[in-house]
Design a protein that fits this description.
The protein is mostly helical. It contains 2 helices and no strands.
Length: 85
């Protein structure tokens, strides 16, 4: 089992920083949309974005599960022979 990076690792710092940027940009875009189109259209846009985000997350999760299963099968398979019997 691979070692999981600690909470203060550079990877997690980057994830938190990226999440902060995404939330900030989303807030600005939402505010602009509300001012331009009104709250109903802004809410519809947020829901559409959320649904698309779910689709992307599901696809990414499926790919990770496929890779994980592939690695498991490679590790559980007997070592290949050199062809001499």
């Amino acid at each position: 089992m691979p070692e999981v990076p600690g909470r203060n690792s550079e990877m997690w710092k980057g994830v938190r920083r990226g999440t902060g940027w995404a939330v900030g940009v989303g807030a600005v875009l939402t505010a602009a949309s509300v001012l331009r189109d009104g709250p109903r259209e802004a809410l519809k846009g947020l829901i559409k974005a959320g649904l698309r985000g779910r689709e992307l997350a599901a696809e990414a999760s499926e790919q990770v599960r496929d890779i994980y299963a592939e690695v498991q099968s490679e590790q559980s398979a007997p070592a290949a022979t050199d062809g001499t019997s």
